[in-house]
Specification:
By secondary structure, the chain is an alpha+beta fold. 16% of the residues lie in helices and 33% in strands.
């Protein structure tokens, strides 16, 4: 997934510049979330599915995400004030026979 942020507000962090391109943001992301006491600072990943009564349920993928992601800075523009990262992660679908939606 490609993510885009106003320069310095995303996982690249304050002081982000073109020399950061190609660097991983995992430690920076974790430090920013810890410093701001926010586990969903950069979004929340969930899996939605219907139960037997067709009521929608939602489960957080946060635990799986934290253990299994890499994020690399792919672009920085000082003139346009943006940063972009390439976020890669995987997760297991629930072992149930229903449609499951990632969000």
């Amino acid at each position: 997934m490609v993510t885009g942020w106003v320069l310095g507000t995303g996982p690249c962090g304050q002081g982000c510049n073109k020399t950061d391109i190609g660097q991983l943001t995992n430690q920076r992301r974790q430090a920013m979330e810890t410093n701001l006491a926010s586990t969903d600072l950069f979004g929340e990943y969930t899996l939605s599915f219907p139960d037997k009564q067709n009521k929608q349920n939602q489960t957080s993928l946060r635990g799986q995400f934290e253990k299994n992601y890499t994020e690399t800075i792919i672009a920085v523009s000082n003139s346009a004030l943006y940063e972009q990262e390439l976020l890669r992660f995987s997760f297991l679908l629930l072992p149930i026979d229903v449609e499951q939606e990632f969000g």
